[in-house]
């Protein structure tokens, strides 16, 4: 197991158990206790947990992992979802992307589509985003016009939120929004862990003609702290084949066009 995978696994375990024992974790991961100690020390330096004698305990940040620690999770599923979702975009569209590892994958998939290239001086695609990492990645693509919302950056997700972001979005119209979520429930709707992100994502949904939720199966059938929107406001859900069939059926019954990849 690579180090970044171990770090992600350790944070996942800590989020579920609230405390970890070095010897127990070493046995579960199949690595030495010394390796686990070094990994826990590294995460403690990042203020993602608190070290104790023989292990670690959770702090608030352990439940909302910084983006760099979440990228290693469900990678094959997210790649398939990103490719399938990006296929829904058409040349000339104004596309919205909020923050998250899956939407970052959608951004990369959009950039790879040669059929979206512009003609003459015109851009093939306009992308509106509140995510700094997505804006950075697409800014060098000549066929993409980037519009960044502005606002205050949140280090855990690289998302911009606040009054500045709200002011910019209120003046724009989005043809197709790719919505990344922390949780998605067929009855309660889409959720984010952070209320500020939920608020700006909600406005992006309101400004969009069509909303495509992108979420791997682990996020379905769950709820988080702050609601982004109702299920009735989501047109398409792109998820992976590992999603629970009963949960997928519930979204279908709610009127969502579910694409399983």
Topology:
Blueprint: H1 3-17, E1 19-21, H2 22-29, H3 33-45, E2 49-52, E3 55-58, H4 67-70, H5 75-86, E4 94-97, H6 101-111, E5 125-129, H7 132-138, E6 144-148, E7 152-154, E8 159-161, H8 163-169, E9 174-180, E10 183-185, E11 189-192, H9 195-207, E12 208-214, E13 226-229, E14 236-239, H10 245-253, E15 257-260
Parallel strand pairs: 4-5, 4-9, 5-6, 9-12, 12-14, 14-15
Antiparallel strand pairs: 1-3, 2-3, 7-8, 10-11, 11-13
Helix pairs in contact: 2-3, 5-6, 6-7
Description of the molecule:
The chain is of the alpha/beta class. It contains 10 helices and 15 strands. It has a 7-stranded parallel β-sheet with strand order 6-5-4-9-12-14-15, sandwiched between helices. Strand 10 and strand 11 form a beta hairpin. Helix 2 crosses helix 3, helix 5 packs across helix 6 and helix 6 runs parallel beside helix 7. The model has no long low-confidence stretch (mean pLDDT 90).
Principal-axis shape = globular
Helical/strand content category: alpha/beta
What is the alpha-carbon Rg in Å? 19 Å
Largest sheet: 7 strands, parallel
CA-CA gap between termini: 26 Å
- Give helix % range: 25-40%
Strand order of the largest sheet: 6-5-4-9-12-14-15
Q: What is the count of β-strands?
A: 15
Following the backbone from N to C, one meets helices and strands in this order, namely HEHHEEHHEHEHEEEHEEEHEEEHE
Give the amount of beta strand, in percent: 15-25%
Total of DSSP H or I helical runs spanning 4+ residues: 10
**Average predicted local confidence, pLDDT:** 90
């Amino acid at each position: 197991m690579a180090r970044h995978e171990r770090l992600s696994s350790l944070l996942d375990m800590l989020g579920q158990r609230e405390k970890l024992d070095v010897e127990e974790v070493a046995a579960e991961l199949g690595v030495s206790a010394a390796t686990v100690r070094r990994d826990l020390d590294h995460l403690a330096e990042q203020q993602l947990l608190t070290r104790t004698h023989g292990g670690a305990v959770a702090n608030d940040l352990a439940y909302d992992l910084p983006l760099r620690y979440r990228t290693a999770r469900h990678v094959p599923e997210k790649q398939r979802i990103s490719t399938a979702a990006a296929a829904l975009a058409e040349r000339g569209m104004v596309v919205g992307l909020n923050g998250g590892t899956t939407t970052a994958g959608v951004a990369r998939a959009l950039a790879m589509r040669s059929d979206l290239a512009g003609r003459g001086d015109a851009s093939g695609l306009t992308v509106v985003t509140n995510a700094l990492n997505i804006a950075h990645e697409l800014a060098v693509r000549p066929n993409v016009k980037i519009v960044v919302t502005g606002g205050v950056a949140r280090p855990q997700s690289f998302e911009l939120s606040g009054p500045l972001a709200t002011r910019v979005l209120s003046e724009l119209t989005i043809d197709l929004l790719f919505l990344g979520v922390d949780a998605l429930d067929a009855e309660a709707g889409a959720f984010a862990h952070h209320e500020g992100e939920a608020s700006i994502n909600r406005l992006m949904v309101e400004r969009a003609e069509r909303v495509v939720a992108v979420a791997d199966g682990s996020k379905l059938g769950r709820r988080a702290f702050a609601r982004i929107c109702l299920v009735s406001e989501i047109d398409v859900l792109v998820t992976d084949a590992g999603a629970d069939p009963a949960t997928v059926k519930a979204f279908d019954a709610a009127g969502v066009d579910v694409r399983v990849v």
